[in-house]
Fold this sequence. Notes:
binds copper (II) ion; alpha+beta; 2 domains; single chain
Amino acid sequence: MFVAVIFAIIIIASIIFHFWSPWWWTPVASNWGNIDATIILSFWVTGAVFVGVCLFMAYCVWRYRYRPDRRAEYEPENKKLEWRLTWLTSLGVAALLAPGLLVWNQFVTVPKNAFNVEVLAYQWGWNYRLSGEDGILGKTDAKLVSYENPYGLNLNDPNGKDDIIVQDADLHLQIDQPVKINLRSLDVIHNFYVPQFRAKMDTLPGIVSYYWFTPTKTGKYEILCAEFCGTGHYGMRGTVLVDEKKDYSNWLAQQITFKQILAQENMINEPKKLVKKVNEY
Ligand SMILES: [Cu+2]
């Protein structure tokens, strides 16, 4: 009886903790309310299984407690029970997986009007590049990455010339403007995560991974690296600011294009010189 009561207390305490927990989600600040819906559904499915299994165990402990006059029955197989359990488990797993797959499909199906932002992760920080007037990010190659060309930009790609290299520590985004986040890494695996946007994904060296979202609330949000990436991982933070259109335009006007950077370095007419330097490096 004592053990059965402990099971009951575990169930009640878990449910109370779930609803009264002080560590709950921040309010969502993007279009991905669906992500929350899938997590809540997972809580319902796993919660129901947890309560069901614990109650069943409590019942069994009490019902089949030791009595000197009773003997256990030997039943190594029960086809009917196994069949039922198989179906019930399959149903539960499908309920957990299916909504997630639907939302994932939306998460990586980028709308045509999305603004291209590149996030370049490194040990231990974040760099940003925005597509210029043409809306296209210039080509990059991991082989071109060097001290002079930290983004590994392809100097022969005309689409890259108007790209905006963000000199600021912070990334700004415009409210209600869908953005495609293109993720790259200079060294190891990182993960670009802003909890309020309910969006995160690994950054992989040599590959561009991506997702999209629309910021729906102005404000200042913290970027966290959500993949252990070395001794400085804890400090790999950043800030993203979601601005009204006017504030965003003001900020954008202060940023400079890749072309301007090249001009500053007096290499605009001599891309070959830079490429040579890169190769030497
Ligand atoms: Cu990291």
